[in-house]
Amino acid sequence: MSVYRDERFPAVPAASNSLRAMEAVLTDQRLCGWPADRVTVLANPSDNRQVATTIRRLAQETGDVLLFYYVGHGTLTPTGELCLILSDTDADAADLTSLEYARLRAAFRDSPARVKAAILDCCYSGRAIETLADEAALLADYTDVRGVYTLTASDLAAHVPPPDEQATACTSFTEQLLDLIRSGIPGQGDPLTLGTLYTHLRRRLRALGLPDPNQRGTDTAHSFAFTRNAAAHPFPEDDATRPLRARRSTPPPDTASPAVPEQKRPQLSRRRLLIATGTVAGATAATVATVAAINIPAWLRNAGTALPTGTGSSGPKPGATRTAGVPDYGTSLGPTMSADPDMSIYAVAAGALNGRVIAVTGDGLPHGNPPMPDDPDQGTLRVWDLVAGKQVASVKTGSRVETVALGRLRGQPIAVTGCWDAGVRLWNLNDLKQIGSTLKATEDIFAVAVGGLNGKDVAVALSRVDIRVWDMNKGTQIAAAIEMPEHYQINDMALAQVKGKTVAVVGGYDHELRLWDLDTSGEVGKALRHGKTIYGLAVSTLNGKPVAVASYGVGMRMWDLVAGKLIGTTFGSTAVSRIASGTLNGRPIVVADHVNGGIQVWDLTTRGEVGDALRSGEITALTVTAFNGVSIAVACTESTVRGWALGAS
């Protein structure tokens, strides 16, 4: 890799090695089988306008499969947009001199390609998942195999070998991906799909202590046949299949390559590969992930035994009020608890159960991943004792749990789960037995909530295309589904009482908040023009009025749901994707994920921070509850659960 003009982007030879190795594997006729004349390599490119023009032209010329691979520096603009660094990028003006990912998004959107995929080996690459998904509904119009598949090296810092090993090494993510392709996966089908490769790649990287990759596959794009399964068709080892670091510097004289027996391989249509290369930076970044909407019913409050008292690790925190007999802000309820490392936690709710403060989590296979033969258990609902620091019960759900809410039915505490298989399930928390049959929607469930409607106990589920309401006692759907506007993909939902009506507040990729009357199935008022993609939202009460707080790229915005007006200005200084609401010292608060890994508490009255950020790692789910008059925040990473006392509720 050549040296960048800006010395703040140091050269990393492993990036150039990754570029050459990726090209070799993709054009290997025994593996990926891409025709060499359909592979375009852009090594050390400069001039962002020229690069963007080239990419757009190639994308428009591709009608079958469009694949973009990038290895290099990644950075974020002040507004949180991903930029791919070029050799002439100025670090002080990266948004003007780099390849903004928005341009790649536009190229994907306008391409007639049947399958569209991006593989990004750079810091901040997880940001691309939300960027490409932003246009998923529009891309669906082009082809039967709809959407974009995105595979990223890390939501935080990408990893490279030590400097003294980089002369012959690839970047860690690309090396493991290519080694997996070369060696194949025993027991799997032939060919291997993108989704199958991701599952095993993720396990490899975790076992080596490397950053977790991420993926997003819409519709059936993740099922695209990417490579032959080398484990099903053993090949003689040569320089094309041997890892780069193990290759001979020069071939021995008079040595011919071993003959390869003629074998039938999958018919892979001609397609185009776009490759740009740079170096890999080593900074941390914000991440955006799927949000689970949590509804905390009143029965959860003020029950059970006492919580631990005393201060947090560094004493009382600025902005937090100390109350006698109440744990100080930031006091850990118990030790951090570890879940199944092969599954990812996507949802959490919290409350009281039989005198204990508990968290209920939902997990499953990584997002966008199809069911795998060697992973028959696709999802689990787990109950955790937050003070004792241990799991106390679990049940297999049969599908990845995307969201969970707590409530009460016929005098019994229950959990309601929304799953990837479009199923909504009710569980008795006393014995974790399913109540009744699975309630079915037509698409995977993004969010669930529990509430009351016309004297009925109802479960409300948000799917990709609609909102459905079920009578939990009868197990029947109430009225027709509330269909969302065409091309309107929703990310999150919460329930609120607005002018005496029970409404679902939803937000997503069209940059608007919308309110839907669950009784009449009609939209309430006009859409609130939020201004940016909404990844997470929560509802609360401020000065006696219902309000909604929604993510706004960097920070959050708050809306008066009665007046339909924005309250104050944007608050918060880091990217936000998950939000939960509660109270602290009698004042409304929200808890949001923090860019550096952890959570931050915000006072809605002042829109100011309360105390320091509470660190625990990259957050995948969070919630707020109250127990014995104490406000409690619970946050999860992909495989851990932790709770903190915030102070008097």
Automatic annotation (TrEMBL):
Per the record, the GO terms for biological process are: proteolysis
Identify the keywords attached in UniProt to this record, alphabetized: Repeat, WD repeat
- Per UniProt, residues of the Peptidase C14 caspase domain are 16-206
Signal peptide: which range, if any?
Answer: none
Pfam families the UniProt entry points to? Peptidase_C14 (PF00656)
Q: Which GO terms describe its molecular function?
A: cysteine-type endopeptidase activity
Identify the InterPro entries for this entry: Pept_C14_caspase, Quinoprotein_ADH-like_sf, WD40/YVTN_repeat-like_dom_sf
According to the record, the residues making up region (Disordered) are: 228-270
Q: What is this protein called?
A: Peptidase C14 caspase domain-containing protein
This chain's source organism reads: Nonomuraea jabiensis
